[in-house]
């Protein structure tokens, strides 16, 4: 039996933990969608900075412009900065994402200053050079894949029905942006993504690796930057396994190409 599933939304998050961008189509690369989490803010010691500790990052929205990122403050749209894709100082620094240490390049002092002023703390904006090959955890990799500055996996898939099921249990429904997926599909029953092993979208095949364990980042309202208790508390009541709260599926790309909103999602296995 073939399900009638289609791609509803595609998101990329150019700067880790800042606002995401919905796009109509995206290029599938091994380490994630083109431009997805290729930039990141780090503390002076190279540690990555996220909404888990700094929920105000949600107020910084990224837009894909011609050959550049535009970043603006949701509360003050006139306050913005343009970051060319190819901008780099070639000055390298060691950065850390969870247990992974890798080489990144500083983007430029003017960008550091803008983010420092917005966040009220010392940060550097860095980008991932092509030469940095951060490996997906070998326990989960299919073919020794590499990954961007994402938490651990190149792609995250969630079904719209799964969010509807969660929202049916919440007093105040939450939007999908709380979960920061890359691909959202419509059709099928709630959590049908849990049963998929490999899928094809357009001409591109993906291997589904493992469920995504969720954290306090899901409790940050992406419009206000304020933290609450939901939807994590409710999700924990019916989606906990081995002390992890699960929502969505992590994936790796098994081939490369372009995917588009409206493409069919074919379950291969």
TrEMBL record:
Pfam families: MOSC, MOSC_N. It comes from the Bacteria. Coiled coil: none annotated. GO terms for molecular function: catalytic activity; molybdenum ion binding; pyridoxal phosphate binding. Transmembrane segments: none annotated. Residues 128-268 form the MOSC domain. This is MOSC domain-containing protein.
């Amino acid at each position: 039996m073939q399900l009638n599933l289609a791609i509803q939304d595609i998101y990329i998050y150019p700067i880790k933990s800042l606002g995401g961008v919905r796009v109509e189509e995206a290029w599938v690369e091994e380490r994630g969608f083109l431009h997805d989490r290729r930039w990141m803010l780090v503390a002076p010691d190279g540690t990555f900075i996220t909404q888990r500790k700094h929920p105000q990052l949600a107020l910084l929205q990224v837009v894909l412009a011609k050959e550049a990122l535009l970043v603006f403050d949701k509360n003050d749209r006139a306050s913005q900065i343009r970051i060319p894709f190819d901008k780099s100082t070639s000055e390298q620094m060691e950065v850390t994402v969870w247990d992974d240490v890798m080489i990144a390049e500083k983007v430029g002092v003017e960008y550091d200053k803008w983010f420092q002023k917005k966040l009220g703390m010392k940060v550097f904006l860095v980008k991932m050079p092509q030469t940095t090959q951060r490996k997906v955890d070998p326990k989960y990799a299919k073919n020794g894949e590499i990954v961007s500055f994402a938490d651990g996996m190149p792609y995250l898939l969630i079904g719209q029905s799964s969010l509807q099921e969660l929202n049916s249990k919440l007093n105040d429904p939450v939007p999908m942006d709380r979960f920061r997926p890359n691909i959202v599909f419509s059709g099928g029953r709630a959590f049908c993504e849990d049963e998929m092993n490999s899928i094809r979208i357009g001409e591109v095949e993906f291997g589904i690796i493992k469920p995504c364990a969720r954290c306090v980042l899901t409790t940050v309202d992406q419009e206000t930057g304020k933290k609450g208790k939901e939807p994590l508390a409710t999700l924990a009541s019916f989606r906990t396994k081995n002390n992890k709260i699960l929502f969505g599926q992590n994936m790796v790309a098994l081939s490369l190409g372009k995917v588009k909103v409206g493409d069919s999602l074919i379950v291969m296995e």
